[in-house]
Design brief:
about 45% helix; alpha/beta
């Protein structure tokens, strides 16, 4: 901050090797790719390097091996195929369904301020006429790109409940470098589901006791994912997490593919956009980013996993007498919100 300070060197003037080293060191130091296994190191980090520098497979492999305490086969990592997202831009989706597979009417998402207005209007005109409600506890379920992330904030605002996502809780634990977060990062890096007890312990601390969520109610986004997790919510030692109602939002697979393989995010605000269903304003196009794990292979696997597990989870809730309703979300989020609310 002194007046005599020198101008900082531009990124272009730094040696290429130093730029790569700084990038990878920052990624590893801040926990963006914590505890990644040997089999996933190159696959996870290479897309990051593709964005910032022209780096060969061998250079990335050598840097990853240098950063690892384990023995590492550079040639093995160098030859691993990259699973990159399909080509896409702010105006071109990564996937467009064949017309013969389209079963939904054309629609577009509303602007964020319109969604907020719809939630406020519902609270003013409908909820205000009802007797005071106890703190609501709602589970919001749905497959990949089913629209949970759009509906959840609207319900949270209308009913004044806390919107809680397991992924958000885990990321917070990892950023805080707590032992539980480190354990979770190891498990997720291996590509397997987290232990039920670990997830339920996190939720119990966030939703139970004297927390704000316990006092005001909560909306649990994207949980449970297995029958054992659902059973734990409706009885046993975690009965305090039993929901009052379960909402299941659904979309055809082809529409889910269009959303997942075309969606992008404003790196400044976190708002999600899509070239067809939620076009981004021209002035923010330069700061849009895409998730490197939104690939066809990953999407197909997640759709398949959801189909295998969802009916059994629904059965657990219905057997426990918890109200559950399915909602078609192949339409405007405002229409879906109106029905869900």
């Amino acid at each position: 901050h002194s007046e005599s300070r020198q101008s900082p060197r531009s990124a272009a003037s730094l040696p290429r090797g130093l730029m790569i080293h700084i990038l990878l060191s920052s990624v590893l130091s801040f926990g963006l790719v914590p505890a990644i296994t040997r089999s996933s190191r190159l696959r996870r980090l290479r897309p990051v390097c593709d964005v910032y520098a022209s780096v060969s497979d061998r250079e990335v492999a050598e840097l990853l091996c240098d950063a690892s305490a384990d023995d590492c086969d550079v040639a093995e990592l160098e030859q691993r195929p990259m699973r990159l997202p399909p080509p896409r831009t702010p105006t071109r989706a990564g996937y467009v369904a064949d017309p013969s597979l389209v079963s939904w009417a054309p629609f577009t998402y509303a602007e964020p301020y319109v969604r907020r207005s719809a939630a406020r209007e519902y609270a003013r005109t409908t909820l205000s006429k009802l007797p005071p409600l106890p703190p609501l506890r709602v589970v919001l379920m749905g497959g990949v790109a089913a629209g949970k992330g759009t509906i959840a904030p609207m319900l949270s605002q209308a009913f004044r409940v806390r919107c809680i996502g397991v992924g958000e809780l885990l990321r917070g634990e990892t950023r805080a470098r707590r032992a539980r977060g480190v354990e979770a990062s190891h498990v997720m890096a291996a590509g397997v589901l987290l232990p039920d007890e670990l997830v339920l312990q996190l939720l119990g601390e966030r939703l139970g006791g004297g927390t704000d969520a316990s006092r005001n109610g909560w909306l649990l986004d994207g949980f449970p994912r297995t029958t054992s997790q659902a059973e734990a919510l409706v009885g046993g030692s975690w009965a305090e997490l039993r929901p009052d109602a379960v909402v299941l939002v659904e979309r055809p697979d082809e529409l889910a593919r269009e959303f997942a393989l075309g969606r992008c995010c404003d790196s400044a605000t976190g708002q999600t956009y899509h070239p067809v269903y939620a076009p981004a304003p021209a002035e923010i196009c330069e700061r849009l980013v895409w998730r490197v794990d939104d690939t066809s292979d990953a999407l197909n696997r997640r759709l398949s996993d959801h189909k295998r597990s969802v009916e059994a989870i629904v059965g657990v809730f219905e057997s426990a007498g918890i109200p559950l309703r399915r909602f078609d979300n192949a339409r405007s989020e405002l229409e879906t919100f109106g029905e869900v609310a």
